[in-house]
Each structure stands twice: as C-alpha cells, then as structure tokens.
Amino acid sequence: MGIGDGGVRKGDWVQIRSPRENAATLDTEGKLGSLPFMPEMVQFCGQRMRVVRRAEKTCIEYPGGGYKIREFLNNDTLVLEGARCSGHDHDGCQRSCTIFWKEAWFRKLAPGEAATPVNFSGLEELRGKLKT
User: Fold this and answer.
1) What span, in angstroms and rounded, lies between the C-alpha atoms of 6 and 86?
2) Got the DSSP string for 64-104?
3) Whole-structure pTM over 0.70, yes or no?
C-alpha cells in the first residue's frame, strides 16, 4: 500500500499543483487540516519533485524556547527532495527547514512522465490565503 490515499511511495515523482488548485484546498487560515501552505512553498508550484519519505512526526519550537513533538496522523504528509524553506517570508530566517506537503498539493507522475505546464493565474488568490 502507498503513502496515504494517493498511493504515493518513497522515490515516486510528483508535480506540485497550480496556485489555484492549491488555494482551493485551504481553509481561511491557509491550512489543509492543521498544516499550513507556507508562502515559501509557492515557488515550487508546477515543479517535478521526488518523494523522500512520509512524515510521521516533527519537533516544533514554541515561543520561549520550548519544544513539542507534533504527529501527522492522517498518513498524507510527505517530505519532497530539495524542498526546503528559504525563510524569505519568515523575516529572512536562515534555518532552511524541511517543508511538509499534503498529498492534495501535488499529483503523482507516471514513471518517466515530465511535469506539465502550470497556469499561475491563481497566484494572488493563493497568496491571499497564506499566513506566516
């Protein structure tokens, strides 16, 4: 069985959906479930990327320097190769954090399939929903 409902496995290639498609998945807080689509993720729309692994949990830093473990319970959160946060929209942060992706934000590609051109007409709609 693949990762989550999309049948995506480690090593598979995916294409990040268009800004308009991703905007349609987000609530008023810019999230799908409890995971935000961050402004730094917009640059990856339309790109072909490889799945590194499923994300099960991560460590979150809270104000004041405390840390807590956060689990991803729906089995639909993934890490993609080379997708790191630039920090551009987070006051120039230089941590280069791993970006977590919901399966709804990309489509699985067939072996050898190239990414198709993506329409960026929904870019402002997507940016309008995003928070930092």
Assistant:
1) 27
2) TTEEEEEE-TTS-EEEEEEEE---TTTTT----PEEEEEGG
3) yes
Distances (CA, A) of 19 to 34, 84, 132: 19, 18, 17
Question: What phi and psi, each to the nearest 5 degrees, are found at residue 30?
Answer: 75, 25
**Structure confidence at residue 117 as a pLDDT band (50, 70, 90):** very high
pLDDT tens, 100-113?
999 999 999 999 99
Q: Is the dihedral of CA 129, 109, 98, 3 positive or negative?
A: positive
The alpha carbon of residue 11 and the mean position of all alpha carbons in its chain are separated, in whole angstroms, by 16
CB-CB contact of 60 with 67 (8 Å)? yes
